[in-house]
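pasting for the record
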Amino acid sequence: MPPTFVLTLSCPDRPGLVYAVTRWIAEGGGNILDSQQFTDTSDGEFFLRVHFETGQDLEALRTGMQPVAQEHSMDVTIVEAERPLRTLVMASKDGHCLNDLLFRQSTGGLNIVVPAVVSNHADLERLVARFDVPFHHVPVTPESKPAAEARLLELVDELDVDLVVLARYMQVLSDATCTALAGRAINIHHSFLPSFKGARPYHQAHDRGVKLIGATAHYVTNDLDEGPIIDQGVLRVDHRMTPADLARAGRDVESQTLSRAVQLHAESRVLLNGPRTVVFA
């Protein structure tokens, strides 16, 4: 069976875009397995995801697609569909999201491989060791934060990391680090954004007497908890629940929402559209 690839693109909408891409695939001996498209009528931007098989290799495909992309002003990405994303996971003291990601990866439930876990505390080292994943304790203080983030970026380069996941990592990354990881860092926030940004969202939710709590997986940007949203989950709650009850109930929603977002990204199903995303689920 020939290898399969995923092509994603965005460009200004115009007639003939789908034809141009599908003709290029067919002329190269490829066969389309799945195709999804969307036009944002508010700004005239076109988005396409095509999963196809072909006997060509990745570099030949990328080179061959360039004339088509240039003719239609396309921003194109082509990746190997079966290749797992090298994913560095960051966490602090809460281990539920980290545990869920490591378990799903170890059982083949996520198309990722985790070469390292980074934490500003040592609490989760034993958990990570059970999955035979290297654990890096990188303490963070106001004085050491620049050095800690420099070490993080060193690991990203040394380990050839494709994606960084903040699995309840309770430190705010600097603007410089957010920029360096733009489009390849996902955070889980334990509220249904845009409600209850920042710290202690379950306490904020309790104070407002909400009847639904949620979790939001989004790309990391310079603006805290404002990045493009990938996925969200919700859970019904009631007046009897304390902030601690809300936090306990929310852990499953956080874990599931983050895992869905990571899988969507790993399968090249998420395309950025300014402050929003197009998600081909």
